[in-house]
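Suppose a colleague, Dr. K., hands you the sequence of a protein chain of 262 amino acids and asks what its three-dimensional shape might be. Before reaching for any lab equipment, you can write down a predicted structure in token form. Begin with the sequence itself:
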Amino acid sequence: MASMKIVQLLFFALFVACMANGVNQQRICMQLEDIHNEEVQSWIGRTRNPYSSRPGKRGAKGDVGPAGLKGSSGEVDYRRINRAIQENVEIECNKVNTGLVGRINKMEEMIRKMNRTVSDPHRQLKLQGLCPVQYLGHCFWSVVHSSKDINVDEAKRICGVNNGLPANVYNEQHLNDLMADIRRKISADTFIWTGMQVDISTNAVLMRDGTRASYVKWWTGGFPNAGESGLYIHVQTDPSSSRQGMGNDPPTSKFHGVICEK
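The predicted structure, expressed as tokens, is then:
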């Protein structure tokens, strides 16, 4: 302890002398002061642990410590948030509206194309070859088999496949056009069902809706047969033959085919 005091006094005396000798010697004094400090620290270390040596180089930097406590929340600007939300909503709504307008325009264009394509309500039937005869804005086509296997119920089913019904005959020209279409499909005389019928109580020929037919042409004498309600057309391969036209038979009778109307 006494030696420490002596060292301190010695350094103090040197320091006072340095300060008295001017600026040039201040650097020496500062160096002496640094040495003094080092000696003091060394003495303190030896006093605490007489076996310890000078501290070595500083070690590597340690890991980052845990995060501090979260600070208090600040004030929320709800007006600014509401404005931002409203702006985003308007932007998204505009996007949706733009998309909807685009889709609507495409749909309208598709409808216009469809209208141009089917401006004639029977265009699709024509494309399918189901409208070889036209009258009063209706399509007429015939289905003909080589054998007699079609009764009235089967005739209705066949026409219904293409959303049609067994046909009416409206006048002489219409009948001739229907027989001409059938004649292209046959090689012998043929019997074809229509949608007309005979009233068995009055023998009146009726249209499909029950109204009286304005035109009737029997293919031979003796018609109509009493008690037989189904009306058919008898067609010869020879267009000049007089033995062709209408006849009546029971609806359960089986013929070669049917004339359809839509």
